[in-house]
Amino acid sequence: SKNLLKQDCYPTAEPLAEIQAAMLGPWETFPLTGPFVGAAGEPLKQMESLQNASARLVSLFKDFLTTYEKSYLDERETQKRFRIFAENLEKARLYQELDQGTAEYGVTKFSDLTEEEFRATYLNPLLVKLPGRPMKVASVPNGSFPEEWDWRDHGAVTGVKNQGECGSCWAFSVTGNIEGQWYLHKGTLLSLSEQELVDCDLIDKACGGGLPSNAYEAIEKLGGLETEGDYSYQGFEQNCGFSKEKVAVYINSSMTISPDENEIAAWLAKNGPISIALNAFAMQFYRK
Question: For the chain, how many structural domains are there in total?
Answer without folding.
Answer: 2
